[in-house]
Design brief:
homodimer, about 475 residues, mainly alpha, CBS-domain, two-stranded antiparallel sheet, 21 helices
């Protein structure tokens, strides 16, 4: 694969996409798919050679890394995407399907028949097949499984048995193992008989007769050592050992902390079953951070940017529904103070400010705490300390912004009482925000829930309804 | 370093913190820092041996990897943190300072005098020193620079000259280079003379007399090849070549796509100057995603969870100020319709719903587009297509939620006209949200700004003020 690539600079990553688009455009023009007005007249002669554009495009694609083809597919609208997909050599289908995002993968798989899917799946190794399996039709999986050798079938079964987010779902079965009582000379001879080592082989795993892990032999150490000595003399204890059921997030943290390239995965009886490599960890980190980002933006999952409108609607409606529900509650709170607003309309204009600053401040608190929880930085005994700190920050914010808002309200509406209510409501809503910003993640983590999910919606619901209630309530008490 | 560690399981990462806390607690108890009621009575005898706890703690810390010590420091309140920091062996100060978060680093550096800082800095290599430099007092830097050998000083100068977010700021100068006309036998002998290879050496760099990059020699290939052949015969063309001024985000994307462990960094004349390794890339990805998450939560930067209240206030006030400003504008919009609200108070209760659903829907659009832009998936010619799609989604959302809200408004306030205004305002604000959700990132990317920064604040400002204006405007036209 690496041999295919000539020297690549970072700018080339995007250049490939532009070239493919250029070729697609010429092809579309030749086919009459694009209006002629859009391009300069001299290009019209190319109509005669439109077959040639496709051939050129095919050659271009053949020279690209599967990940680059995946990137191009993701950046093309559906119609162009399928033209390119048709041109990609069939024996690379599997690899490319692995690289594209879930949403785009769906659109590609929908364009393939069962035979093509089976052929694509059969080019993959067990751990890769496991990644693809959820998106494939059941009959395709069945056919592929039947064609697998027994060992691969067992690996596939094993990889599929671990849920997403565990080490088991990311691990890789290809690795080199050696015994501790052989010489480095023998190890070297053994390695030379292999055509090439599995990707990301930075170390060999030393196991005993029962495949129990004894240590590791880094390649860098093998190279600098005397060939006469035995493996046992130069092997090192592995830094981190993983289990298939370990959380992928914890494993990623270990890779980050100890700068690992690969780590062994062992079963309950300490037998080596697989390894985890840094490329899988990098993919996991990217995906996990994308999920957080998408969830915070109110999207259920990664979206194909050229998805049909109805697919996008399905990806988005649930968060809108939840937000609408919380907005409705806030609306009922306002409704309860109808009488006060009728008497003093300024309240209607000022109330969103109080709710808004509470929401923003609460989001700051909850973001910081959710992050610290995810990094394992908050120990049970420090919650009270944290709450005290957040209340302190809320108090300072309250005094600063409350005073400012109070003065503005006084200047705008010439009422000292209204200014006072505005200031007091701001302080109280900021305190509410701090309280809920600490309490919500605390409660959720105590009950074993992921404190990140929906944290922003929850805190905003509290500070909106709470802010309206506090401000309108104070106004009703003191002003009307 | 790796030798220090015995076998580690993922659960041990948190276990270390608990053990340190236990020892700290006993120490604090012995010192009378903690009230006796908090712990069981039998522990009181330990007062007699409090020196021993510190010794035990010191031993515990000495056996930990610098990254683990960093994690423990981050999770401890200031007072305990400084007790632990005092106990860490001075010669590891530098490494540990590199590993802790910026905020916590500040608190540690504040506790050290110049001599300690100089001693800590002197244990680091040029690229590491460059990472630490922004947090060190100028006189410390100066003293350290003077003590550096000329080559290291040049490297430090070079690393410091590239801004954050570039390859130059992440690159590493330690690597092994070989010539293409020597035999693998000679390469192996050369490597054996080194005590150990630099971390993350998965390949050697083949350079000519002028240090121009000719190719790479992967260790895995060196090991399986015949020792009699020359480097030129087995070297491979490097997959990706980086320049120091390349964006770190692009480099990270290349590492992710091609599953790299290391990549060469060359200057404008193609001479090898450094390399980038996957551990630096992983750190970069983590930090970049943390920054996004923090910015979206309204925090300027990573916060020490035990930061003094005033530090936290400084980290948060700017976003609150911006949000307050946009809320104020929305408030003035409402104020302009005071007359209508006075006549029909229900408007005050319903208007936040219209603004809210617009904000949520706009955030969904902008999140998707900002992500796609960051991944390089949006080409200039597709903006119109994207806008059409988003308007389509907005229309479906508008019909679905507008109808629902219209019916609810009708049921609550028994006014068909109010229900109609509610429905129409919802549709229009969703269309506004889609329009701005596409236009804002488009404009920002056209003018070379980062479309991610503040995108949520901008879109919410539009949909809040816009939503109030549309709803109250329609109500004024048709209802009052």
């Amino acid at each position: 694969m690496s041999e295919l690539l000539t020297r690549l600079e970072v700018e080339d990553l995007k250049e490939n996409l532009r070239e493919v688009q250029e070729l697609l455009h010429r092809h579309a023009l030749a086919e009459g798919l694009v209006s002629r007005q859009e391009i300069p007249r001299h290009a019209l002669v190319e109509q005669l050679v439109h077959k040639q554009h496709l051939a050129e495009l095919r050659t271009k694609l053949e020279n690209l890394h599967p990940a680059d083809v995946a990137y191009i597919l993701e950046a093309l609208p559906l119609e162009e995407r399928l033209v390119v997909w048709e041109l990609v050599k069939a024996d690379r289908d599997g690899e490319i399907l692995l690289e594209v995002s879930d949403a785009v993968r769906e659109s590609l798989i929908a364009s393939m028949d069962s035979d093509e899917l089976v052929a694509a799946a059969e080019t993959l190794e067990a751990d890769e097949l496991a990644d693809l399996a959820p998106d494939l039709p059941a009959e395709v999986i069945q056919e592929v499984v039947q064609s697998l050798p027994a060992e691969e079938r067992e690996r596939l079964r094993s990889a599929l048995s671990y849920p997403e987010g565990t080490v088991g779902a990311l691990m890789d079965f290809e690795m080199v193992t050696v015994r501790e009582d052989v010489t480095l000379e023998a190890v070297t001879r053994y390695l030379r008989r292999m055509d090439e080592l599995p990707d990301h082989t930075d170390q060999l795993y030393v196991v005993d007769r029962e495949r129990r892990l004894r240590g590791t032999l880094p390649l860098a150490r093998l190279i600098v050592s005397d060939l006469d000595v035995e493996v046992a003399a130069v092997m090192v204890p592995e830094r981190v050992t993983l289990h298939p059921q370990d959380r992928a997030a914890d494993a990623a943290q270990a890779f980050e902390r100890y700068d690992l390239v690969s780590a062994p995965v062992v079963d309950a009886r300490d037998r080596l079953v697989a390894r985890l490599t840094v490329d899988a960890v990098v993919d996991y980190i990217r995906e996990a951070s994308a999920e957080t980002q998408l969830a915070e933006g109110g999207l259920r999952e990664e979206e194909d940017i050229f998805a049909p409108v109805l697919n996008s609607f399905r990806n988005r409606w649930s968060w809108l529904a939840i937000n609408l529900f919380t907005a409705f509650i806030a609306s009922r709170v306002i409704n309860a103070f109808e009488g006060s607003i009728a008497k003093l309309v300024a309240l209607a204009a000022l109330m969103p400010i109080v709710a808004g600053i509470g929401g923003n401040s609460g989001n700051q608190t909850i973001t910081m705490i959710v992050r610290a929880l995810a990094l394992g930085q908050i120990q049970a005994q420090y919650w009270r300390k944290l709450l005290a700190k957040e209340l302190g920050v809320a108090l300072i914010n309250g005094v600063v912004w409350g005073t400012l808002l109070g003065v503005i309200a006084y200047v705008l509406y010439s009422s000292i009482a209204l200014g006072g209510v505005m200031a007091l409501a701001t302080v109280l809503n900021l305190i509410l925000a701090a309280l809920m910003g600490v309490t919500i993640p605390w409660l959720r983590s105590r009950f074993g829930k992921d404190p990140a999910i929906g944290s922003s919606v929850l805190i905003t619901a509290c500070t909106d309804s709470g802010g309206f209630f506090i401000f309108l309530g104070l106004a009703t008490l003191f002003l009307v």
